[in-house]
Amino acid sequence: MKQIGDSNNYNLLAPVYDLLGSMMYFGALGRAQRHFLADIPKGSRILFIGGGTGFLLNPLFQRCEPKDVWYVEKSGAMIRKSKKAVRHEYRKRIYFLEGTQEDIPDEEKFDVVLSFFFFDQFRFMTLGKIFLKLNTHLKSGGLWLWADFIPPQTWWQKFLMHFMLCFFSLTTRLGTDRVYDVPAIFRQRGLKQEKEAGYYGGFIRTVLLRKS
Questions:
Q1: 205 phi/psi in degrees, rounded to 5
Q2: CB contact at 8 A, 116 and 89
Q3: Does the reported pTM lie above 0.85?
Q4: End-to-end CA distance of the chain
């Protein structure tokens, strides 16, 4: 669960964030994020919101060959770790923005938006407002790749979700006490879902959507 909110702060977790996710979910978080990268057209302009530690940057450039990437992340510690993680030859095509979606200039338009384990930290009204802001930066016909947890259905999913929300509330001042069916919210607001896949017993979903 990464940040980009009004109060969430992941600076303390930056050194161990990827390790925690790998230990708890046996690599499912990373696989979900990489699942639809091959569907991104080469030469795309990509907006990556809440990018975290930057582990996905090298695979993103290797598979998609984007024109450029705007990497928006609120945590300064995450930004510093991302800059160290990315290969030197890719850095000139990455704009690291330490801030939130509100800091993206209105005139910047992108072919692709990536939001991985980002919306799970916001209350319903807040995530709706964030979606509307990000959607203004996505070109018509553009792709939106989303991966995250879905609302828990089984007892073990409910247990894990309760544990995660409590943990992140204590460590990052997380702003919500539940997760929502975010792809359904996207579809209600004009995005068309084209593909989806599940990980970790279906508790983690990854979805490819397109802006009409």
A1: -120, 150
A2: no
A3: yes
A4: 28
State the angle between helix axes of 76-85 and 57-64 in degrees (0 to 180), rounded to the nearest 10.
Answer: 50
Residue-range domain boundaries for the chain: 17-211
Whether the CB-CB separation of 48 and 72 falls below 8 Å is answered with yes
Cα gap 3→49, rounded to integer Å: 9
C-beta separation of 128 from 41 below 8 A: no
Q: Which CATH architecture has domain 17-211?
A: 3-Layer(aba) Sandwich (3.40)
* Cα separation, 182 vs 205, whole angstroms: 10
- Tell me if 107 sits within 8 A of 139, measured CB to CB: no
pLDDT in tens, the chain (212 residues): 444 444 455 565 545 455 555 656 778 999 999 999 999 999 999 999 998 889 999 999 999 999 999 999 998 888 999 999 999 999 999 999 999 999 999 999 999 999 999 998 888 999 999 999 999 999 999 999 999 999 988 998 888 888 877 766 666 665 666 889 999 999 999 999 999 999 999 999 999 999 98
Classify the C-alpha dihedral 136-142-148-152 as positive or negative. positive
List CB contacts of 19: < 8 A, sequence separation 6 or more: none
Residue pair 70/96 in contact (Cβ under 8 Å)? The answer is no
H/E stretch holding 68: strand 68-73
